[in-house]
Amino acid sequence: MAAAGSANEADRRFMAAAIRLSRRHLGLTDTNPSVATLIVRDDGDGPRIVGRGVTAIGGRPHAEAAALAEAGAAARGATAYVTLEPCAHHGRTPPCANALVSSGIARVVGAAADPDPRVNGKGYAILREAGIEVVEGVLADEAADLMRGYLMRSEKKRPEVILKLAVSADGMIGRRDSAPGKGQVAITGAVARRQVHMMRAESDAILVGIGTALADDPSLTCRLPGLEQRSPIRIVLDRDMRLPAGSVLVRSARDVPLLVTIASDCPSARRAELAEAGVSFLAVDVHEGHIALPELLDDLAARGVATLMVEGGAYTARAFWNEGLVDRLALFSGPAEIGAGGIASPIDPADTPQGFRLLREARFGADLYREFVRSA
């Protein structure tokens, strides 16, 4: 049995490259995480990548299989960098751990651990029993951060909830106005808005409350050139099924999936009208007149949703926040003020939220971006 190895600077460099590659299919791999594998060999002239793989759209084949197929015979004696422990369970195809053994790989460097009980150390055990050197935990936190939704769905049986807020200089997230389409106000600039579209492209689903749907008439799609097909599932929390059939969301339901919540007492005529337009429905429990959010998250996880982006409005944001259901806060702060008639942010942008830590900070044009994650 091979002894555990240790990581070197080249290992960290190639693992960082694998982690960047793993972003390619975020939000597109169904119930599987977007994992990347690099096959690297050194024949005396320095290390070179001979195989690359990322979990395919839909979840199969896995990254290891794709990378080994590209490497071919060059995989023998090489090192495999995997961002998640190779799977160890049999299906119609052999486990990735066994595929690595069969390829003649000499060394495997892994990043994040897999909490799936069918894996959880078993993949590394298969490799070690075959005499392959295994190095675990290289850039594990960085890899786990990108697949936090998968890890949370595996461990807690609910999606990771990302609350995105754009807050003005005077602490507002919008303007009160009852006329459809008049409540929306630009708080951030074009660069920050493009970043939000990238976040949508990497999420499984995006959620808003009916108040935002009525006030802003949004599309909630990804509109970055070339990434239009990566729009997430759209969800509207609509206790009384008030979403108009003529809204942008409903009119695009046949192009981009739209889920509208439905309680047991919702009018059947409205349901039939929306169903005719291509809308799907998500049955929800109601507690004291409000949608039961923990149960909603359970049901979304059962549907395969691992990353849920909550984009508004104030009532919905506050509901998720107050129930302790937010795992990541994506906070954009713009330089302009909204003034009278503004809707106050449920979170003070000047302070680090209690129980959270600042993960990263960036500037997008004139706007400040800060990302907070729940402390372990």
Automatic annotation (TrEMBL):
What EC number(s) does the entry state? Answer: 3.5.4.26, 1.1.1.193
Alphabetical keyword list: Hydrolase, Metal-binding, Multifunctional enzyme, NADP, Oxidoreductase, Riboflavin biosynthesis, Zinc
| Stretches that traverse the bilayer | none
Q: Which reaction does it catalyse?
A: 2,5-diamino-6-hydroxy-4-(5-phosphoribosylamino)-pyrimidine + H2O + H(+) = 5-amino-6-(5-phospho-D-ribosylamino)uracil + NH4(+); 5-amino-6-(5-phospho-D-ribitylamino)uracil + NADP(+) = 5-amino-6-(5-phospho-D-ribosylamino)uracil + NADPH + H(+)
Protein's pathway: Cofactor biosynthesis; riboflavin biosynthesis; 5-amino-6-(D-ribitylamino)uracil from GTP: step 2/4; Cofactor biosynthesis; riboflavin biosynthesis; 5-amino-6-(D-ribitylamino)uracil from GTP: step 3/4
Residue ranges occupied by any CMP/dCMP-type deaminase domain in the UniProt entry: 9-134
Asked whether the keyword Metal-binding is assigned, the reply is: yes
- Belongs to which family? In the C-terminal section; belongs to the HTP reductase family.
Listed name of the protein? Riboflavin biosynthesis protein RibD
Q: Whose protein is this, by species?
A: Nitratireductor pacificus pht-3B
